[in-house]
Amino acid sequence: MSNNTSSVTLEQLASLCKRRGFIFQSSEIYGGINGFWDYGPLGVELKRNIKDAWWQDTVQRRDDVVGLDASIIMHPRVWEASGHLEGFSDPMVDCKTCKGRFRADQLETTACPQKPSKKVGACGGDLTEPRQFNLMFKTFVGPVQDDSSVAYLRPETAQGIFAQFDNVLSVSRQKVPFGIAQIGKAFRNEINPRNYTFRSREFEQMELEFFIPPGTDAEWHEYWVKERLAWYSRIGLAQEHLDKYVYGKDELAHYASACVDIMYQFPFGLQELEGIAARGDFDLSRHSEYSGKKLEYYNQETNERFIPHVVEPSAGVDRIALAVLCEAYRMEWIPKEGTDGDIREAEPGEKLPAGYEERTVLRFEPIIAPIKAAVFPLLKNRPELVDTAKGLYRDLQRRWPVFYDQGGAIGRRYRRQDEAGTPFGITVDFQTLEDQTVTWRERDSMQQIRVPIAEVADRLMDALA
Ligand code: ATP
User: Fold this and answer.
1) How far apart are CA 444 and CA 417, in angstroms?
2) CA-193 nearest atom, ligand 1
3) Is the pLDDT reported for residue 6 higher than 60?
4) 28: exposed, middle or buried (C-beta count within 10 Å: 0-12, 13-18, 19+)?
């Protein structure tokens, strides 16, 4: 795939996402709420496909990983043991001039709300000294709101896995090394949510805790970094847009022996999609200490008992969805019907060349595309075309999310699906009635071929393998 992320702006992407129903501002009719987003009909499918691809590769197709779905609100002691209560905070400054609150470590990239051409601090505002702000959302459990009923919305899914380590180990018949995986919501009261959905206050994580024998940390860490990087190609992110950030020894948490972030070249810069950390036995040891319950593994063959170490690949679904959208977005010039020429990507600011028209297309990988194929009758007032098209649609619909559209000129219908990222268009036309073939149109090349109607489902299956 060619480099695209430099040419799409977040504004263009957000406008398409709203127009086509990928992402809406939460509570928009009330003016929105900062840091919260809703996924519309296409967005929810996109996210589901990302989660399914992760689950398939991380759990379903492996013998050594099992799944879990833990509760969002947990016993408050969990967050004492994990260190979140004490240390899960960002440095914050207040501006006494504009009353804004900002992350002290992001002042150089944060515009002043009153003088947007200037950065916070450089605008002449009177800033306080930085102080720590805990990012966990607090709530109360039960009808009495006092110190004894305080609870927290989880800021990560990982702790649910550590807290259930013993139960899962005893029911799953797994042996170390093995992993427990979970997908779920996490909440962080970010001081400055920004870059569209990239930094939100409510988001989804896909986390794996892979438990290993002590001393094998480096090799398993390397293994998971490789696996996870390769996974991003499977969902359509070009390797040239991905990078690794390797933590220096001085940047690591005291208990960690290695950490690598997988970074993606977003329009707003190279930013983290996923962190992969070798966390030693810190988490299980702390939960043992705070709960009083031994969280150990007994190796029957060697007769050894030990606290497993863990390697944790921790990814954000919303950031991956944003990366996939940035990667897929193209503004293209396409030759007008009856004209020769190739499809090509529009340069930023370039005027539409003569003989061409513009199209916006989302070039998703088929496995990630919200809708896999659209079925069209060439004309809506010809029952023989409509009946065949609807029959094919109903058949495909049993297996995949597909779309039926009979309204408007066929070219317009194709173009709408290009914007939704639908990889294939299938048109029932007059030739279908003669030889039982349909037009199969490919989104990226816009090439059209004839395919027997009986082979459509198999072709789709191959494309989605
Ligand atoms: P950052 O440094 O960007 O705040 P982090 O290092 O604190 O991220 P982790 O605690 O490692 O993030 O969380 C794992 C993953 O969860 C991240 O790689 C990211 O994909 C996702 N994530 C974390 N915070 C947010 C957020 N505020 N909005 C969306 N996704 C997030």
Assistant:
1) 11
2) 27
3) no
4) exposed
- pLDDT of 304 > 60? The answer is yes
The burial class, CB within 10 Å (0-12 / 13-18 / 19+), for 189 is middle
Say if residue 2's pLDDT is above 50: no
Q: Tokens for 402?
A: 């597909």
Q: How many CA atoms within 13 Å lie on the side-chain side of 293? A: 12
SS3 443: coil
What's this model's pTM, rounded to 2 decimal places? 0.95
Q: How far is the CA of 282 from the centre of ligand 1 (A)?
A: 20
Q: What local confidence, expressed as pLDDT, does residue 258 receive?
A: 98
- The predicted pLDDT at position 350 comes to 87
Contact status, residue 296 vs residue 307, Cβ threshold 8 Å: yes
* 3-state SS class at 420: helix
Domains and CATH numbers, the chain: 5-76+153-326 (3.30.930.10), 371-463 (3.40.50.800)
Distance 316 CA to ligand 1 centre (A): 6
Structure tokens at 93: 């400054």
Reported confidence tier of residue 128, pLDDT bands at 50, 70, 90: very high
Question: Predicted confidence band at 36 (pLDDT cuts at 50, 70, 90)?
Answer: very high
How far is the CA of 428 from the CAs of 38, 366, 379, 459, in angstroms? 35, 22, 9, 16
CA dist 156 and 167 (Å) reads 20
Q: What are 134-147's pLDDT values in tens digits?
A: 999 999 999 999 99
Residues in Cβ contact with 223 at an 8 Å cutoff, skipping those fewer than 6 apart: none
Name residues contacting ligand 1 (CB within 6 A).
156, 188, 190, 199-200, 203, 205, 272-275, 314-316, 318-319
The CA 208 to ligand 1 mean position distance, Å, reads 14
